[in-house]
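Before we proceed, please read the two lines closing this message. Report back on whether the structure tokens fit the sequence:
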Amino acid sequence: MTNKTLLSFGVVTPVVFWMTTVICGSMIDGYNHLQGMVSELGGLGSNTQYIFTIGLDLSALFSIFFSIGLWRYCRERRMNVLPVLLLANYLFLIGPATIPMPLPLHGVVGLPFMLLIFSPLVALLVWRGERDYLQISVIAFGSLCFLGLAFLVYFPDILSQNFGLKQRFLYLGWTIWSVGLSFIFIKDINRKLLNVRVYN
């Protein structure tokens, strides 16, 4: 696969995630995305358990392709790969997606997944001076705003009736970061290809 194709999975991965949650939510009577947990969509014995598992596992596996593309891009540009390694922890979503709620391990196996929260923050620190840093920083700040709002899950009195919304702030922040990096880096590759054609 070309690096552009691999980087395009930065868009494909969240699209698969959000499509899975929307489809599963529509199949459960009375489910409210603003109130219900994402894990409820794949709850043990639910009629959407296997659809949810397949969709989220696919999303996590697609994230591997994106991570490989990011790794290649950063190595070619001699950029620090730590933000890539942190973002690659999305793969660990396979754990809670495959081990459904309310099984005891459901909340444990996906803990490394939470490390992706630090990816945009670390990128702001280690990618300073890069050619597209301004665009990267805008995307990073936007992502961090929503990732920060996700911590509202630990404050039950705030948006008390909207736990699902608070939880989805995490996925929205990740989506902004993933899609943003995909577009920025693909645009840079296209720019290089255009320059090669012009000089040739």
User: Anything to note?
Assistant: Residues 10 and 125 are 21 Å apart (CA to CA).
